[in-house]
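Q: Hi! First time asking for a complex rather than a single chain. Here are the components, and I think there are two in total. Is that enough to go on?
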Amino acid sequence: MGHFDTLATGRPNATIVDRLKQSSRSRQLVLLRAVLDRASALSLRITPLPALEDAWGLLVEAQRRDPVAVEEVITSPQVGLWAAKALRRLRNLPTNSTPLWADLGYLHLMATSAAVRAGLDFRSRVPVRDGSLVLPTLGLVWLSGQRRWDIADVHGERGQVRVRGSSRSVRLPEVLSDDSDGWQAMRHLRVGKDAMALDICLDDLDPYRGFDEPLPPQRIPATEVRQWKDGLDSAWHLLTEHHPEVADEVSTGLKTLVPRPAVSRFSAFSASHADAFGCVGLSLPTDPVSFAATLVHEFQHSKLGVLLELVDLVDQQTEDGRARYYAPWRDDPRPLGGLLHGIYSFLGVAAFYRSQRHIEGEWNSRLAHYEFAYRLEQITRATRTLVTADNLTALGRRFAAAVEKQLTEWNAEPVPADLLTAAERTSRDHYATWRLRHLDVDTDYVTELARAWLGNRRRPAVRPPEPCLHEPIDLAPGPSARGELIRVSLGEPELFRSYCVDPELVTGDIPGATTADLALIDGDTARAAREYRARVASEPDDPSPWVGLGLAVPDSGLLAMPELVHAVHRRITAMSGTSTDPLRLAGWLERDQ
Amino acid sequence: MRHTPAELKTDIVDLTGLSLAELQTSDDPALLRSVRLLAGKTERGRAIPDCLSR
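A: Yes, that's all I need. Here is the structure of the assembled complex.
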């Protein structure tokens, strides 16, 4: 099997990651050359900074003196992100509100960082924002000026580096990894030992560590750094002990973690970007398993991101850019590329939990079984959509076929019945909720059905028109309380019990969770159905109780086409002035179909 | 500088071993083609960040 087909299985492989890393390096260098060429073609001046060629000259000099030191800078994921943004900016595409000279001045900061690392004698001029500047991969200089945008001069001589701003000057410490007056060193987390050691940057400083607008530095306190170190240490121990191929792959390619706030107590944040290979933004995971799974998830995105730069899996000529699909891990409809990314990412996560569920000891194997089954459900459904898409290239079809083959193998593996049922229910929950939020039903058809219902007639024998995506697309997150509650019930059963005893506790922890949701997850489907039915009557446009009712009464037919039941229910209410029983209506719609 | 001798054809040249000085001045057609294609793709492309996952 070649590298391409091996990569498509989603299984870890450090040799392939090393090739992807080299490709990413080449891509970053090509983008840097493209920035220089574009700026030169535009005869661009970035006053009050010197020309970009001067920065490049300093980089060249630094590389001659110490190629290894410069390599650290030019392969930084933030450099890739910056170069891509700079190119878009030079095409006059809107990117951010930073002045052009300061944005492009990042190349001067890169060159200065390289010169400092290489121990050159040099002079440079760099941009300053809100009184500080960041030397990529090294740290932040605090100059305390009042101006939003300013400049500083940097002078290195015989190993001493001084940065002179308009308000004060700062001398960099001899050991650059130490903080000192006016200097905040880039933090590193070092975990593991010998061949299985991991040394990565914990970046709370670089403006391009965020994936959208440049972010201001946000120094996290030492206690939090300790938490990150401990968390990574435990996750790394889990990976090296039980998932050595994943550890090997991650240590080959992961360079940077960017701390970000969590969405809520049970909803973590994680992100990656195609222009920043090896960089993961994430909130601090709550346990070693979810930390490891998050690294796997985002690293898969990084791998696919590079692959998609190397080859086309989706035909860009026929991709109209507007087609959107159901992606089971997202609340909003996604383009085909997004579907591909999610499939690949969760393929890696499923592989991780496939092993994790069989590890004995302190780990929660029931939760791991559930995660394996749930992720498998999601990617199997999404892959069915992917393989039928008509704008995959030949390589894209080959990739999808390899994924499909892998899924067929894994779907044949046993999972405890109750956990498989729970995973299928969560999957149905998300899909039905998505349909309710995003699909529109033909209004004439809905009216015809409502008239038939009110006239006590059979459902008209007309083939239902295909529902279409509602425009504009609702990008807001959908309800997720039941999915979170299932994880709590499996991962922290005592906490779940306390929620059942005192439901007020849950509303603070899991926004939107109701007593009906608790009853459903707890197996009291009769009570859940009763409460959901009451909520449908009082809040008929909230998708959550509709889907909850369909889950509590699974043979009702409500979840087959929830958007149709909801739309007809709404029309009946508008036409008659009275509400109708949603389960009877669902049965009528399904029975006479 | 060479095209990656891989199983797949790609627009990205392999720049292993090329110095930054050479990168700035090289007029190798393979590099220039790669710069043109990648710059175009990057400018057109909209990276797909993945944030919340259910």
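A: DSSP finds two helices and two strands in chain B. Let me know if you'd like any chain examined more closely.
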